[in-house]
Input
Amino acid sequence: MKPGLRTLAPYLGLAAAYLLFSLLAPAAFHGAYNLKTILTQSVIVGIGALGMTFVIISGGIDLSVGSLIACATVLLARALNLGHEPLPGWLPWAALAAATGCGAIGGVLNGFITARFRLAAFIVTLGTMQIYRGGAKWLAAEQTVTAPATWLNGLMEVDAGPRWLWIAPGVWLLLALTAAVAVVLRYTVFGRHVYALGSNEAAARLCGVPVALRRIQIYALGGAFAGIAGAMQFANLTLGDPTAAEGMELDIVAAVVIGGGSLRGGEGRAAGSLIGALLMAVLRNGCNMAGIPNYLQNIVVGAIIIGAVGLDRLGARGSRA
Amino acid sequence: MKPGLRTLAPYLGLAAAYLLFSLLAPAAFHGAYNLKTILTQSVIVGIGALGMTFVIISGGIDLSVGSLIACATVLLARALNLGHEPLPGWLPWAALAAATGCGAIGGVLNGFITARFRLAAFIVTLGTMQIYRGGAKWLAAEQTVTAPATWLNGLMEVDAGPRWLWIAPGVWLLLALTAAVAVVLRYTVFGRHVYALGSNEAAARLCGVPVALRRIQIYALGGAFAGIAGAMQFANLTLGDPTAAEGMELDIVAAVVIGGGSLRGGEGRAAGSLIGALLMAVLRNGCNMAGIPNYLQNIVVGAIIIGAVGLDRLGARGSRA
Amino acid sequence: MVGELSKPHLSGPHLNEPRSGRPILRVLGVKKAFGAAQALRGADLEVLPGEIHALVGENGAGKSTLMAILGGNLRPDSGDIAFRGEDWTPAGPAEARNRGVSLVHQELALVPHLNVESNVTLGNEKARFGFARSQADRVRAALEELGYADLDPGARVGSLGMAERQIVEIARALFHDAKLILMDEPTSSLPARDVERLFAALGRLKARGIAIVYISHFLDEVARVADRISVLRDGATVAAGLPADTPTPDILQAMVGRPVAEIFPPRQGNLGGTVLEARGWVSRPGAAPADLSLRKGQILGLAGLVGSGRSALLRSLYGLRRPVAGSLAIGGEAELARGWTLERARASGIGFLSEDRKDEGLALGLSIRANSTLGELRRFANAAGLLRLDAEAAAVETMRTDLAMRSQGIEQPVGELSGGNQQKVALGRLLLGDATVWLLDEPTRGVDVGAKAEIYRLIAAEAAQGKAVIWAGSYLPELFGICDSLAVLHRGKLSPIRPISAWSEATVMAWAAQGVHA
Amino acid sequence: AGEAVAPGGTAAKTRPVVAVIPKGTTHEFWKTVHAGAMKAGSEEGADIIWQGPAKEDDRKGQIEVVQNFTSRGLDAIVLAPLDETALARPVEAAVKRGIPVVIIDSDLKSKAFSSFVATDNFAAGTLAAQHMAEALAAKGGPASGRAAEPVGNVLVMRYLEGSASNSNRENGFLEGLKKFAPKAVVVSSNQYAGVTAESALKTAQNLLNKYPDIAGIFTPNGPTAFGMLRALQIAGRSKQVKLIGFDATEPLLAAMKTGEVAGLVVQDPFRMGYLGVKTALAAKRGEKVEARLDTGARFIWAAEVDLPDVQALVHPDLKKWLGN
Ligand SMILES: Nc1ncnc2c1ncn2[C@@H]1O[C@H](COP(=O)(O)OP(=O)(O)OP(=O)(O)O)[C@@H](O)[C@H]1O
Ligand SMILES: Nc1ncnc2c1ncn2[C@@H]1O[C@H](COP(=O)(O)OP(=O)(O)OP(=O)(O)O)[C@@H](O)[C@H]1O
Ligand SMILES: [Mg+2]
Ligand SMILES: [Mg+2]
Output
């Protein structure tokens, strides 16, 4: 393995995609406003991917994030509906906390089942993906839930905030969270344990790492990030949608893997996952801008996913022959 | 590992679900006609799961099957449109072969990329899932493709055939394929190699197993089964649908895992996968019959997926610490 | 000869010194069963502070199981254990370690993606507000104490060699202020030079009053480093605390339950025609071109230090890695190195036994049956391509009895067998095949003395029937006992092949270390 | 919410049971259909089972629901088919087993069903085009007197590959625009928004970034219109562009009040559900029923949203019929 190339691969991929579309798409593509749009569009997948980074480094996977995002949007909308006009100032904060908490609780359940019964994370979260989706529909009474307007609605507006903010508040949040995740992974005991779990769980157990507790914490964190992503999703649509983010779990996993995460565990980086999310946003935006038909978009996105992961393999050939 | 309980678990799960709904749902639930309906409804996921059984035993996964199924429906419809009325008798057969072949070719590509560049199957097929979906839309010119009526349309009719057939032709096909897969896995050199690959690829290579070739064959087989499942899906819809079977890959994987397949490779059974597919059909049918709302269906299906896999863990506790 | 085995082949000071005092660890009548298998049926052990206590026994005798119990990994079914005068019932490995007992595992418990420091401190990090504080100084001190001051605490463990990994594990024990260190076959994958460094480290530990339980299948090592020896047989202690100078034959008899007369079978030197001839063979970049020829009935030893290229040579001959240059003639047909593949090697009748049983040799999840016939399935297939399961079962059953394999039938997953029995499955695969040239890479690694004798006998018998064998090994007495000719590798440079009688341990070591004849 | 009333039970034997199968269960449109169905049920003394496909917009899933109710042997089925071809055979199988089927909302290529109760989607699309032309004219020229020539760039964001009802609306709009506003330029009509409002939002943002100068936008259904609306709001262009949407969902109605949505084509889902069940029960009793019932589409300008008849149309009394 050449860490150099593997770390660079997502950046190269992003640069290549950007250049490609700068040629294909109209000039508006590399205008500042469109750049901000792309950034905004990477927020939801990006925040989800940051949480997923913990999960994937630890050797797990979480297919339930899409459903958790839906739960969070619904819960947030429901919470906002609890207040009467004029809404008390703390209500949006409380709603935000509820969304995050709801994700975290879902994550705790994922982690608990995975750790307690030693089941494959893929299958556990495949199950909870259905369960949480059902939960979201139930919470929403099988409807989209409208909510009174609050400052939450502005979180994902491309340039709604004051001028000095420059980009959407959601983008700043994404960047801040990326930095926070990078610090946690690199400098904290918890971060080390995350890597240890993914690299060799048996060894971690023997060394007294509280494996089950850590797994639960890791999935809880992944779920909490899904909750925050759900809040951003809510801000985007300004309503709670129980069918939101169906299939997004795969986008999120793809972002992490494009960014250098390994599904075998032990590898992954916060910045990489961010780049992965950005790459996918650039692709989608570029394809729309260039008027590329939908089917070609699918094909390009698929090729990029494989390409980004394949790139480093071409460099580091034939390890143990 | 207690092979006994692990092998029995899916059967017990199926029996439990059937009993449960016999109590909850109206009497029609355990009538012969409804049994036939359930059998018919398990055909597509079941055939897909048989192909996936090879892939999962060999330690891989194929997320692209849903897209391949869509490709197959579209190609089949397109092929049928090539003939002029009255359609020549060989045309439906040729169209069937084209659907199967199209799945197999997609599988070959999956296997080739996975084996040649030694990439994780999850990520390769996550990419080809998008690529094949795009391909299906392109083939279909972003429309559903209608086709002239042939006997193919009758393959999935609950009791369309002659009386002695008793169940839909597709169900007979599913049963025949299950038997064939069971024989291949148990009594052929190829089958042994599939298990060896999943249990320890390096050891298989050392023993002269042509690893790359086998991987390609395995994914090709998985793809061919997806193609056949696509033909059944066509029979079901009587049209080629580029958006068909979205997300079905997860149902198919779930069926295999419920039936005793291990995502770590080396374990899995044809009959188990069949039972897994049946279990999911019973659940969905029973929920409809009992008038259980959608959100509860999601929750029940999710719980069963986890439960079926968790069941055997409760029996066999703490193996090698 | 027994004498040969007991003769210390390593030079250096004796570590043995008599010790006395109250025992730090006392184990009495410990029993442990895994389902139907009774792994321990009354194990006793008494360890004094500051002593190196060797624990020996055949494969499957229960040594690792006992260690796992002491280290807090497993709980005994019954029996009494006291550590420093108190009842010993640790809840888990972490508690055991915090109370002073550290286990250095047979399968190393390291995290390859993290660096040395993180590995040593794993599970016991010092933190402020959750942020890990550097303990590099303490880690470095522990490494220094072990004589490995050059090992960088920031190095990724995945990039370290076997010996260094072993040291990281021991450093972890030191870091946690262990009073008792349990070492399960620490030298089984170490070359002689690193064994020396390890012994030096053990001496330092001992001087600090730390007690060590030391498991090894190398009785000469045991004689050198241990103060006392306990012998396990079939899960029970049959000899407790023998003094270190107990004659080897007595230890052997205790282990096996009968006198062990001859270890190496007699070899008769009637060799047949040349079956394999390599010319200018370069197995990896930087290696010197090697000429090699092998005759029917010959057992050719291949000695060398770790990394000298023995495995690379065997693997390239088997087609597992692409050789750089050279040509190969098998049965008179010449092949260029470029086109040499695993398929051709197998078709030409070459068989291979890997040194890495766990990762490459065996599919641990599959049965003995599936593992032993995997390479030769076509032999058991009928014209229609279907397997004849009965014929297969019969063949595997015969092989199992021939090798005296301890298992519950042929359907048991290989992963449940003890190390030695796993090795027998790997060998059995060659026996069931029809290869005429056997390339064996460390075929007796982790195998007990009794089983070793079996393997020697078996391979000698196969050679007598016309097989040609290349035997790569690290343990010189074994090479001298079994081979009829020998070649030595030094950094990819192969010495001329000479009859075994033309070598001595000194000349072998000289070539291995410097690549010249002494 | 969408739950069965007394499934099974012995007492229910005498009451007819009708299954109403929507395309999905999580949009207001379908909730209104449900309410209409319940009203008809209570009038007729019938039990209504409300059940959508397990996955929204999943043709196979809907086929299975139809099969399952066929197998259960109900008195009648009211179905909004996700696909005009795919659902034909299951419907025929149901009819063969003596269960009359009434199709609502979207057409089905079959002769087996008893009646088709729906909006004429192509006509509704044309209706949207006619009003788009008015809006463009009002925008371009003086508001009074003879309307100016309708000009400007028009964008159509499509829904999903292979959705017949939506592509009818889209095509009806495109045809109508040629007729009513021949000078208007359709800058893009080949981008699909996807099933969810979220995917519609992203596609809409990207399209808006590409075309800085757009006068009018048509979107063929609720979620697509809403995604477009959000994109316009976020871009700060919601007041500059005449957005014409489809279906009266709550957020779209709210945006009409602020003038961010110029107008909506509104169907009558309540009537659809009501007439669907009524017709189905009539067919069951062997009465003769109309083969085609148009439930009508109406265009509403933003200014008209508070009119009582409009309110009655867009806010039927759901609580009364669905409880909670
Ligand atoms: N988890 C387990 N399940 C079943 N049997 C086990 C398990 N662990 C150990 N055994 C059995 O217990 C016995 C003792 O095994 P153990 O590993 O302690 O032997 P050992 O003395 O360390 O042998 P070796 O020298 O080969 O390492 C063996 O027969 C082994 O097969
Ligand atoms: N010059 C070199 N080129 C490539 N690889 C090398 C070189 N020197 C050492 N190695 C690596 O060192 C490791 C040990 O080499 P090899 O296995 O051939 O030695 P060995 O003598 O068989 O050692 P062992 O005693 O462990 O079996 C291998 O992973 C090999 O790839
Ligand atoms: Mg052992
Ligand atoms: Mg070696």
